[in-house]
Specification:
Chain lengths: ~110, ~110
């Protein structure tokens, strides 16, 4: 069972470049989310989705776009990368109700220069 | 709105000593509470959770946490730590029926020294 798979694991971008962080889960979870992790700030919610075709903003959505065309996939797009987006990004999935375990990917370490 | 505050950013402790990692939360609705652990260069894993019922919950590796509604706290404890417990620990909250959205604290780095 693969769980939550994130690609790539590492990425270096130049300011202004765009890229997509991929996230896929094979547990048929309705709920998927993206977090960024920065030192001393814990994990902050960027965007989330409660099912295919439904997305919403989290705490720090600026500079990021998401879409959810299938239950399995939830890509995160950086349209024009900025140094402030240097961070470790985690994708997570869980069932809808909020009382079950969230499963996390291994993370993507992104550096914007 | 919900929020989580972890009161210590780093907790150094010697092996076999007890440890407490503190977590306070704020919410206007009833909540579910979680502790997640992150080992170096890995994603987060669920350590334990409180949903309802007994206020003391335990993990399989000796950690326990107590839900205190009056103090809005969910502190994590272990009576005797091991080197392998060195990791970052995150307290998190989700509102009941809240679509699975988790709000995390800032994290506490537990450093177990030999």
């Amino acid at each position: 069972n693969a769980g939550v798979t994130q690609t790539p694991k590492f990425q270096v971008l130049k300011t202004g470049q765009s890229m997509t962080l991929q996230c896929a889960q094979d547990m048929n979870h309705e709920y998927m989310s993206w977090y960024r992790q920065d030192p001393g700030m814990g994990l902050r919610l960027i965007h989330y989705s409660v099912g295919a075709g439904i997305t919403d903003q989290g705490e720090v959505p600026n500079g990021y776009n998401v879409s959810r065309s299938t239950t399995e996939d939830f890509p995160l797009r950086l349209l024009s990368a900025a140094p402030s987006q240097t961070s470790v990004y985690f994708c997570a999935s869980s069932y809808y109700t909020g009382d079950t375990e969230a499963f996390f990917g291994q993370g993507t370490r992104l550096t914007v220069v | 709105a919900q929020s989580v505050t972890q009161l210590d950013s780093q907790v150094p402790v010697f092996e076999e000593a007890p440890v407490e990692l503190r977590c306070n939360y704020s919410s206007s609705v009833s909540v579910y509470l979680f502790w997640y652990v992150q080992y170096p260069n890995q994603g987060l894993q669920l350590l334990l959770k409180y949903l309802s019922g007994s206020t003391l919950v335990e993990s399989i590796n000796g950690f326990e946490a107590e839900f205190n509604k009056s103090q809005t706290s969910f502190h994590l404890r272990k009576p005797s730590v091991h080197i392998s417990d060195t990791a970052e620990y995150f307290c998190a909250v989700s509102g009941s029926g809240n679509t699975g959205k988790l709000i995390f604290g800032q994290g506490t780095t537990l450093q177990v020294k030999p």
